[in-house]
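How a chain folds remains the central question behind the approach discussed here. In the encoding step, the backbone of a single protein was reduced to a row of integers, each denoting a local shape. We regard such an encoding as a compact summary of how the chain folds. The sequence in question and its structure tokens are set out directly beneath this paragraph:

___
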Amino acid sequence: MESANITKMSEIDERSKRILWAIIESYIASNGPIGSRTIMKKYSIGLSSATIRNTMADLDELGYVNQPHTSAGRIPTERGYRFYVNTLLKERYFHINKKMFQQLADRLRAIEKDINKLLEETSKTLSAFSHYLGVATAPKEEEIVLEHIEFIPHKKNKILCVLISKEEMVKNKVITLEENIFTQSQLHKITKYLNNIFNGLTLREIRVKIISQMSQEKVICDKLINNALILCKKVLELEGENMFYAGQIYGACNLPDFATMQQIKELFRVIEEKHFMVKLLDKIAESDGVQVLIGSENIISEMKGLSLVASTYNDGRRTLGAIGIIGPTSMNYEKVIPIVNYTATTLTQILSER
């Protein structure tokens, strides 16, 4: 079935492409069905209303547009948007607003030293510049690179651990022991030992190294080193889900840009289901470049009336997370795709300079 669909896509001639482009461009602007007379008057296609109408009927039959009711014009389908993104947009040059992109970069570079604030500002900036909803995920905990770890006596049998990453993320965790067995001097030695052997490694690499070290007899015989590894192992039993940031729905997001109240409700449900959004953006992080998920292509059922344009960002060595914009399926892809691409590139440049 899918191969037949791909064949149909390749059968669209240049006239049909121009009319499909006109339908989608008009629908993005008006959120209403488009008739043949509107296309004839608004676009210089050089075809009669009857010819346009016949071509629209062909596009309807192929599944690129549909007719809400008999007397209405056509509106794009998900298949139509997919062809628009995959083919029609790639056949044209994206309009680059250099002034807007410079403003975007300036906003991010103003707070580039704190990655949590940087990503929070990224989501807000994506919202502000697109008028949809910007989202971002922080680096996965297992990919965080250790800069320094510190153990501090807390109370009774509890120890406070402070973990600082090279990405300047700070994580605190209170470890509860069966009994108070460590003095301040011992904790200081443990801290020094762990920083010497684990500095510069990712948390995932540290976990692997701990397992390897603890399996060695000479380590088991050295009580201090063994206790150090046990403490570090407890610290690395983190929650495992990276932070999720969402831009402002009000103010920066222009709710009238959402075609229906149903899409607005779906947007709110998506924000409430942060766990699913993290899973979705993690899926995006498995591939490079800008990706566009339209309607039912999303793995979250609440996003069936929405689209996501997203991209990964990295630090020059490895992928850290993903950023994106959520909007209606009728979002302005021609504007949004360059914004997401430029923002991901800017984030990567900032994090690569550290």
